[in-house]
Amino acid sequence: MTCSSLFAPALVWANDPARVHGEIVALLGVVERSGCAFMRNDSWYSSADARKMLEHKLSDAMRVPGGVTSTEQFIEKSASRSSMSGRSYMVRCAEAKPVECGPWLVGKLVEMRSAPRAPPAPPR
User: Fold this and answer.
1) What's the pTM?
2) Fewest CB within 10 angstroms: 44, 53, 79, 116, which?
3) Percentage of the chain with pLDDT > 90?
4) DSSP 61-83
């Protein structure tokens, strides 16, 4: 599978703000369920607190016309670094060495997009 095929859904969804928002909210669920610690401006936070902070940043970005056109854009512009200090957010899962949040989120997005989807519910 090529890199471009992994991100192909984003090209289709870029014109559908509701789908982009839904995908970002699903990604934030992955963040919360990860149980990883997140560093922002030299302080570590729980995965639940990280989700709340990222939800706040999503809310701010959604207020700007054209502010979020893809999940990748949200990761790059809002979920990777502090808007105050410019420093990268970091993620530490279990005993692993901390990694930058942006690439970690992109990896989780790729996993999420490549996961088998449940079949649609039969019509009633």
Assistant:
1) 0.81
2) 116
3) 68
4) HHHSTTS-SSHHHHHHHTSSB-T
